[in-house]
Amino acid sequence: MDFSGKKIIVGVTGGIAAYKSAEIVRSFKKRGAEVRVLMTANGAKFITPLTMETLSENEVITEMFPEKRMVGIRHISLADWADLILVAPATANFIAKVRAGLADDILSTVVISFTRKVVFAPAMNVHMYENSIVQDNIRELSEFGYEFIEPGVGDLACGDLGKGRMAEPEEIVERVWKTLNPRQDLKGKKVVVTASRTEEPIDAVRFLSNPSTGKMGFSMAAEALSRGAKVTLISGPTDLSPPSGVSFVRVKTTNEMFEASRKAFKSADILVMAAAPSDFAPKVVRKDKIKKTEEGLQLTLRPTVDILKELGKAKGKRILVGFAVETDNEVANAKKKLKSKNLDLIVLNNPLRAGAGFGTDTNIATLIDRGGKVEKLSKMKKGELAGRIFDHLMTIGRKGKRRPETQP
Length: 408
Ligand SMILES: Cc1cc2nc3c(=O)[nH]c(=O)nc-3n(C[C@H](O)[C@H](O)[C@H](O)COP(=O)(O)O)c2cc1C
Hints:
Blueprint: E1 7-12, H1 18-30, E2 34-39, H2 43-46, H3 49-56, H4 74-81, E3 84-90, H5 92-100, H6 106-113, E4 117-122, H7 126-130, H8 132-143, E5 147-148, E6 152-155, E7 161-165, H9 169-180, E8 190-195, E9 200-201, E10 207-208, H10 215-226, E11 230-235, E12 247-250, H11 254-265, E13 270-273, E14 280-282, E15 301-303, H12 307-313, E16 319-325, H13 330-340, E17 345-349, E18 362-363, E19 365-369, E20 374-376, E21 380-381, H14 382-396
Parallel strand pairs: 1-2, 1-3, 3-4, 4-5, 8-11, 8-13, 11-12, 13-16, 16-17
Antiparallel strand pairs: 6-7, 9-10, 14-15, 17-19, 18-21, 19-20
Helix pairs in contact: 1-3, 1-9, 4-6, 5-8, 10-14
Bound molecules: flavin mononucleotide (FMN).
Flavin mononucleotide is lined by residues 13-17, 40, 42-43, 91-94, 123-124, 128.
């Protein structure tokens, strides 16, 4: 990562993770960037401006109205100067201020005056982070084009355990680099991604499903979008917000997912089937709620439509990526699936391994392509894995014979 010639403003707000921003500034400097640090008054209580001044080799700005009068309008010249603003850590308070359009200190005023990319690395207690108001602010700002680096799960400084720990400096620096140097190798391509689970109703209140949250599919959609593709994201039930800029289709059952995929398929170049649709559905769906009985209940299930197989049969020149969850004979089973479903690439993972599978932020995957190349990857965040999957996909290109195109 070469940051030579890049000008970055690092905004530091009042959270414990402020100590990590010193490492971030150091890393930017080491890689050739020019860095200006702006701190909120509370940010300056957590780490001294002197530390940041020494690391950035630039004066640190904490005041909107400095005692020593300066010529010119400082917040405007700073906003004109920078290529990117990184706010790390970003407090709940600061995120709320930006969403409200407030400009009551130097950092918020520069952020509001800025016309290029602003990246937030939120850091806070899990209850703060999960608060609907905070989540709503993040969602709204994402829709306006602000970028967020998801915090990690772990021990928090307050003693709680959960989501809210600021992403590690290395990951933040990498994300900023990607934002400053967007790869556009999917420009002009139409990518369709399916994500999350499907739910098959049993009666008026119950359903059959699985624990897939949609994280992997949403990461794939975000990656494709950042690489210049036009993206349609078809998702079953999920708590995640779609990345801004994707065309979002919400579905519930496997059949609805199939219909939506079939429709999007027509104009697609690449299809990434990252969803975990339910393979079975109750044969009979009761309109009322089935009464609880002493003798229990027997359900007869029917197979649902095999989305991957149907799309595989008709894919023509399109590139089709599938996911395989295997717990035994992993590589052999995945290879079999790759062939039987006419895939170009299969992403194999075993949810029984620590740090892999449903609901986790990370995954451990093996990529197997139709040319027989097997790439074993180590444990990594789903966002990073999404990048590696598209990297691998780009190496496959248009080699090999493909079946003629039909309609699924
Ligand atoms: C010891 C301590 C740690 C704090 N850590 C955080 C934090 O990690 N994230 C957060 O959003 N607020 C945290 N706060 C609360 C913020 O400092 C507070 O909301 C403040 O108003 C933020 O100001 P700023 O956004 O202008 O920097 C902490 C407060 C204290 C006293």
